[in-house]
Amino acid sequence: IKGSAEGRATKLCYVENRASTLISPIDGMLEQRCEPGETVAAGDLAGLVWPMDDPSRPPVEVRHAVDGVVLARRARPMLLAGDAICHSGRPITDEDFMSIATERGA
Questions:
Q1: How, if at all, do strands 78-79 and 68-73 pair?
Q2: pLDDT at residue 106 above 80?
Q3: Nearest-CA neighbor of 32 among 70, 89, 85?
Q4: What sign does the dihedral 94-100-105-106 (CA atoms) show?
Q5: Pairing state of beta strands 78-79 and 28-32?
Q6: How far apart are CA 102 and CA 100, in angstroms?
Q7: Could you count the other beta carbons within 10 Å of the beta carbon of residue 75?
């Protein structure tokens, strides 16, 4: 391999609670509206779930509950009520990480 490796700093994110994981409220097909690495705010649209049982019904909006960065999102569009749509976390510093680890006894 020619050349040199590119150095990158690790970006730490903290998932505070279950609100960081968005869950589908209905069965349907997901239309994603966020990308991994994207910074989002509470209330931003994460996706639309289109009901498959009645095409005349409008889609259900799923919105981010917390501010953060999208860490992962669902790859498959078909989902059942209760399936995860995406996960987000709050960016933290090394100092924040150490503080959290100390609080939890790690």
A1: unpaired
A2: no
A3: 85
A4: negative
A5: antiparallel
A6: 5
A7: 7
Token pair 């510093």 is found at 93
Residue 70 is encoded by which pair of tokens? 């999208």
Q: What pLDDT digit, counting tens, does each position of 22-74 carry?
A: 999 999 999 999 999 999 999 999 999 999 998 899 999 999 999 999 999 99
Binning pLDDT at 50, 70 and 90, where does residue 16 land? confident
DSSP code string of the chain: --S-PPP-PPPEEE--SGGGEEE-SSSEEEEE---TT-EE-TT-EEEEEE-SS-TTSPPEEEE-SS-EEEEEE-S-SEE-TT-EEEEEEEEE-HHHHHHHHHHTT-
What pLDDT sits at residue 44?
Answer: 98
Residue pair 40/70 in contact (Cβ under 8 Å)? The answer is: yes
